[in-house]
DNA sequence: CAGGATCCCGGTCGATACTG
DNA sequence: CAGTATCGACCGGGATCCTG
């Protein structure tokens, strides 16, 4: 039986409780800032958002640009790898709306 | 900001550590039996496999058919909802192979 | 063979407080 | 504003044993 390493790796990368939702807002809603994300996503804590963002950066989905200004300004954006994941995000969203009626 | 309920719901349904892999084997490799799945999937415990299968059944992805025979024979198969998810599984697999080189 | 029951551990996530 | 630090609760998942 052919094993499928890619599937389990993806599951690990996007399996976090909020990962898909974070990517969704950044990719499809043009949300770029920490505070925006926190307000968009229901009831995520700051520490959790921070950690999941760092993991998404580490896994190559996002870039993090710190402008070194006061007040602080940081922008998150998709990497090419992240961009290539957008069709799947759209498919998931549309699947949920159609199959689950959400 | 438009909230996106469908995304978080999907994350909850397929966020389990082995969910995507289980669906992958049933959908694309025609694996139907408990023991087969356990052997295909690396190092999943029986109790965990059992629980995740039950959740996939409860969430409408799978059907479970118990033939009531001795020795026991049970078959898992995709529901129509599960079938409709197959394109996303394929997309995930192909994305992983292409972007991650797996 | 297909799993249920039980126990337990580790990691994830959340709440709170604090910083540059 | 954009986080980090710390702590603790919770629960998903693993190990083991048992059953029809």
TrEMBL record, chains A, B:
Q: InterPro entries from the entry?
A: HTH_HxlR, WH-like_DNA-bd_sf, WH_DNA-bd_sf
Name all HTH hxlR-type domain ranges. 4-102
| Listed GO MF terms | DNA binding
A Pfam family of this chain? HxlR
Alphabetized UniProt keyword annotations? DNA-binding, Transcription, Transcription regulation
List the PROSITE patterns: HTH_HXLR
- The name this protein goes by in its record: HTH hxlR-type domain-containing protein
The lineage, from the top, is: Bacteria, Bacillati, Actinomycetota, Coriobacteriia, Eggerthellales
């Amino acid at each position: 039986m052919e094993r499928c390493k890619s599937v389990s790796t993806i599951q690990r990368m996007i399996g976090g409780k909020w990962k898909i939702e974070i990517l969704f807002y950044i990719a499809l809603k043009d949300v770029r800032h920490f505070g925006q994300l926190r307000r968009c996503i229901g009831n995520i804590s700051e520490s959790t958002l921070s950690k999941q963002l760092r993991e998404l950066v580490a896994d190559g989905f996002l870039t993090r640009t710190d402008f070194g200004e006061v007040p602080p300004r940081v922008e998150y954006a998709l990497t090419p790898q992240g961009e290539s994941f957008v069709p799947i995000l759209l498919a998931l969203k549309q699947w949920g709306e159609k199959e689950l009626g959400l």
